[in-house]
Amino acid sequence: DIVLTQSPGTLSLSPGEGATLYCRVSQSVSTSYLAWYQQRPGQAPRLLIYSTSRRATGIPGRFSGSGSGTDFTLTITSLEPEDFAVYYCQQYRFSPFSFGQGTKLEIK
Amino acid sequence: EEQLVESGGGLVQFGGSRRLSCAASGFTFGSYWMHWVRQIPGKGLVWVSRISNDGIKRDYADSVKGRFTISRDNANNTLFLQMSSLEAEDTAIYYCARDGWREGFDLWGQGAMVTVSS
Fold first, then answer.
1. Taking CB atoms and an 8 Å limit, are B103 and A95 in contact across chains?
2. pLDDT tens digits for A69-98?
3. How distant, in Å, are the alpha carbons of A46, A89, B1 from that of A50?
């Protein structure tokens, strides 16, 4: 099974700052099948980024994704209050469709 | 508006059964593969099962294989998860999600909480 490891576990930042979240995959996956999700407290996950770098419908331009092979990154420029949430990466190329353990982005 | 709405959650006895439903609306349900994903409150997301758009192909996580069955009724735009031999470790919020193919899991329901207790 493919394992995704996210870092850091928790990121403490202030609104207006930029954030960089990392996702390392245990074996190479096509960039076409790497996604990022945002989950706010009490809510369902929401797709942010698919195919490594494509923003889902309605996602603001401050969210961007990059990476290849086994290392992927989610970048959020100029954090808004609503961006403080938990973020998960996921590979959806091979079953079981594994998620990372999550990075909690909290207000400093 | 595209929407997924889960139902059927609740308290279940250890070793018991429960069927979750996921009602789809606002899109052509029969064109999409669908998934179930679960989450222990406060913990991460765990993929559970997948079903093809025609209901023929099904995949399961090892932790639920042989105990859970995914199915669908395309005529009534509904996805199901039949859970049996439930264990305490199955206590979780269960989400249904639409497979956007190369666009990831692009639509999620609000979740249904299942609590397994003795």
1. no
2. 999 999 999 999 999 999 999 999 999 999
3. 11, 10, 21
